[in-house]
Specification:
Layout lengths: L7 E5 L4 H12 L3 E5 L5 H8 L3 E3 L18 E5 L8 H8 L4 E3 H9 L3 E6 L4 H15 L4 E8 L4 E4 L5 E6 L13 E4 L7 H4 L2 H13 L6 E5 L8 E5 L5 E9 L2 E7 L4 E7 L4 H16 L4 H10 L8 E5 L4 E5 L4 H14 L5 E5 L4 H15 L4 E4 L16 H4 L7 E3 L2 H11 L3 E5 L8 H9 L2
């Protein structure tokens, strides 16, 4: 497939964060872009407003005429989350189209470019957004394919005028093995996606293979805790090659100093909260220094960094109420979010609303979820968001609740959660999860802003 010949692109599962980035990329190049997704969301409505046609019924007769004959000018992309019984998926497959996974197309786009790839079971979205922002802010420039909506740019894809591209390297379905980066960052390799990998050792091996695909004379930067053999290690307050030091909170903002073998940057103010984000920033700084970006520009970029939508995002921040929303859906992500909240607001009662994501993840990590959620003062638990999965007998949100030691916990529906928040008006509220819990954000914001 020669991407320069493409004039028409159809995306099956266009509403996903990675797929929508590709949709925007090809639309920017002037291609006719269409797609299908199961549900209408804020993101698909934005794509529609940008001139991209989207349907929400899985019916082949809604596919435009111009996409009904395979040729060298038509590209069909699908997400692995699409079920194989999809009518649209089977229409293209049965008529001789070559169907490409999102990751394969990302590999094709980045193949001829200087590629900075950020991988990890968590931390990769924020880190890749930080790197892209430093490059844009400093004038170095880049294109970027991000796994979330950057709050600085209000999009998940950036277009640059040079050959540098920043990509979020997704480990799900081994997608990141289509990439051959010049610089790779690996933030974490915790057990996850065991429905794909079977066990943690297979996941670890996949990350090792990704690390081995760095181009000759390329650079690997990874967290010091990871079982990788060679490269540049980073951490917060650890014995790594690259480290954040003297981490402190001043007037609600995080500050730290950066140090590597030949550069010290003092008094860096980070535009977003959390020790875990200081670690992400440490990796991003090392990437920027490898590209010869001046430390003063790096400092300015990190202070002006606004984060990523649904990554430790302040929804309400007033004297009476603090409300933070986070995408965390793995025990270690939850630990990072809750620890950061409690460090920032140690004297406030923390009410957490959590929606488990996937039956398999709930089954595999019920003990871990219970331990971390017990760090809250009150818990409101939603039912599991199934996403691509069918129910598993005996697996429910109660698996987590039953393992928790906290007494102030209850299982609720979404409307019940809204009513409880209306009644209790918590002083410190955290919503966490990767499903449709984001539908609660605006109603809860309205309640706490209008007290």
């Amino acid at each position: 497939m020669e991407l320069q010949n493409i004039k028409r692109v159809y995306l099956i599962g266009i509403g996903g964060i990675g797929m929508s980035g590709l949709a925007r990329y090809f639309a920017h190049l002037g291609c006719i872009v269409c797609g299908y997704d199961r549900t209408s969301t804020d993101l698909t409505r934005e794509l529609h407003n940008e001139g991209i046609r989207i349907i929400y019924d899985d019916r082949e007769d809604w596919i435009p005429m111009s996409f009904q004959t395979p040729d060298a000018c038509t590209l069909v992309i699908y997400t692995p989350a699409i079920p194989r019984f999809s009518e649209i998926f089977n229409y293209f497959r049965d008529r001789g189209f070559t169907l490409y996974k999102r990751s394969q197309v990302l590999g094709m786009i980045s193949k001829s470019k200087f590629t900075i790839a950020v991988a990890g079971t968590h931390g990769k979205t924020t880190t890749s957004c930080m790197i892209a922002h430093i490059l844009k802010y400093s004038g170095t420039d880049c294109s970027a394919f991000l796994g979330g909506i950057s709050s600085n740019y209000n999009t998940n894809v950036l277009f640059g005028k040079n050959d540098i591209v920043v990509v979020e390297a997704d480990e799900y379905d081994r997608s990141f093995l289509t990439l051959y980066p010049d610089i790779a960052v690996i933030t974490s390799m915790d057990a996850d996606h065991l429905d794909i990998y079977g066990n943690h050792s297979q996941l670890t091996e996949s990350f090792r293979q990704f690390a081995s695909q760095i181009k000759a004379n390329g650079t690997l930067i990874f967290h010091e805790d990871l079982p990788l053999m060679s490269g540049i290690t980073y951490s917060a307050n650890g014995p790594a090659d690259v480290k954040a030091q003297y981490i402190r909170v001043e007037d609600g903002d995080f500050y730290f100093d950066f140090k590597n073998s030949d550069t010290v940057i003092n008094n860096i103010k980070l535009g977003i909260a959390g020790v875990h984000n200081i670690e992400n920033a440490t990796a991003a700084i090392e990437v920027a220094l490898k590209l010869s970006i001046h430390p003063d520009l790096i400092k300015g970029a990190l202070e002006s960094f606004k984060g990523v939508k649904r990554r430790f995002e302040y929804i309400v921040k007033s004297k009476e109420h603090i409300y933070i929303d986070d995408y965390a859906h793995h025990p270690e992500e939850l630990r990072a979010a809750i620890t950061s909240v409690k460090r920032l607001y140690p004297h406030k009662k923390l009410t957490t609303i959590f929606q488990p994501h996937l039956f398999t993840r709930t089954r595999d990590f019920a003990d871990g979820f219970a331990e971390v959620l017990d760090m809250s003062d009150e818990l409101l638990m939603l039912d599991i968001y199934p996403a691509r999965e069918l129910p598993i007998e005996g697996v429910s949100a109660d698996m987590i609740l039953d393992r928790m030691k906290m007494l102030n916990k209850r299982k609720c529906g979404k409307q019940e959660v809204v009513e409880l928040v209306r009644i209790e008006k918590p002083e410190l509220l955290l919503t966490v999860g990767a499903g449709d819990i984001d539908q609660l954000v605006q109603p809860l914001k309205n309640i706490l802003e209008n007290v």
